[in-house]
Write a structure and sequence with these properties.
With about 325 residues, the protein is mainly α. It has 13 helices and six strands. Helix 1 runs antiparallel to helix 2 and helix 8 packs antiparallel against helix 13. The longest helix has 26 residues. It is elongated. The relative contact order is 0.10. Its main location: membrane.
């Protein structure tokens, strides 16, 4: 924060604390000049006010909180730009990318700064990391991890983990923490975000494909906006043909004209309209629509194009968690 705001916050904070202390001291002094417990002469609704001091326990507790507040503000951030003598931080600030976050974390560790987020992450890995490894790696009869010829631990098959109730519960929690914001808590998706429970996959639904999608993310090459090439009539004709592929009732003459124009779409969706997982091109024959299956939505997709992006989670989750998460997602999809 700027200097003015820093000074303003400091003055308000210290002013409040010392103001409360002054009020406490003022209230502990007898200003009535009367014997303790004597009536003050003020009555209301039949109740007479007596000249009694503040309870000692309350005064001491109030004084303790004032001292505690001052000590806290010396040790930790709170007074404007003053960072506290301990150098404690809640997290690395002003981070704009994952790369910056990793660099800031490394710098904090090298400098020995007390960054609470980093400490919590290290603690969590110490406590839960072993459990993640136990769930995702093969182990022998002695409980030791199986390793390949290069000395690397061998992952359990995703299809096998998907049958493990304990593992899927952990995978579900990973899903709710990291994926539910887009795909929904029930994994049924939303407009523009795929349903993960229906067995329909843009990039393939095999265990390996799902894990690769989570690890590396997906960035669609994008569907072009075809109205400039097809014209307004062409968009309607192609929409009729596309809708007919999934058994929808359309104008047969318009659909026939659209079939002739579909050649521009076949390069990605295939001549039969069943899509191409290598390109992320959806199947147009199954009546499952990522951006809506109404005629207006289909025409809008053809007219203006579509492009979707899913971020890569490898550097955020790590491969252990991504493998476990892939197993949970695979368990939702009918296990293709």
């Amino acid at each position: 924060m700027n200097t003015f705001l820093s000074i303003f916050v400091t003055v308000i904070s210290l002013g409040t604390i010392f103001g409360c202390l002054a009020l406490l001291i003022w209230c502990t002094k007898d200003k009535m000049g009367m014997e303790e417990g004597a009536p003050t002469g003020h009555t209301f609704d039949g109740i007479s006010e007596l000249n009694n001091p503040l309870p000692k326990w309350w005064s001491y507790m109030f004084l303790f909180m004032v001292v505690f507040s001052l000590v806290y503000l010396v040790l930790y951030p709170g007074l404007g730009n003053f960072k506290g003598v301990l150098g404690w931080e809640s997290s690395n600030q002003n981070i704009r990318s994952l790369e910056e976050s990793h660099a800031a974390s490394a710098a904090a560790r090298d400098e020995g700064r007390l960054v609470q987020y980093e400490r919590e992450m290290v603690k969590a890995d110490d406590v839960f990391g072993a459990k993640f490894r136990e769930l995702v790696y093969e182990s022998d009869a002695a409980g030791e991890f199986v390793k390949d010829e290069n000395g690397n631990r061998v992952f359990r098959a995703i299809a096998d983990i998907a049958q493990d109730e304990e593992a899927t519960k952990v995978g579900q929690r990973l899903y709710l923490q990291n994926c539910a914001q887009c795909h929904g808590s029930d994994a049924r998706g939303a407009r523009g975000f795929p349903n993960l429970t229906d067995g329909d996959w843009l990039w393939g639904g095999s265990p390996e494909a799902i894990k690769h999608t989570i690890m590396a993310g997906r960035k669609s090459a994008g569907m072009a906006a075809w109205e400039p090439m097809l014209g307004a009539d062409g968009v309607e004709e192609v929409a009729s043909y596309v809708l007919s592929l999934s058994g929808r009732k359309v104008d047969p003459v318009e659909a026939q004209k659209g079939q002739a124009r579909f050649a521009v779409c076949a390069g990605c969706h295939g001549a039969d309209g069943k899509g191409n997982p290598a390109l992320g091109a959806p199947n147009l024959t199954d009546n499952i629509w990522l951006y809506g299956g109404s005629r207006a939505a289909v025409e809008d997709s053809i007219r203006n194009g579509r492009a979707g992006v899913m971020p890569a989670w490898k550097d955020i989750l790590g491969e252990d968690k991504a493998h476990l998460l892939a197993s949970y997602v695979y368990s939702l999809s009918g296990k293709q």
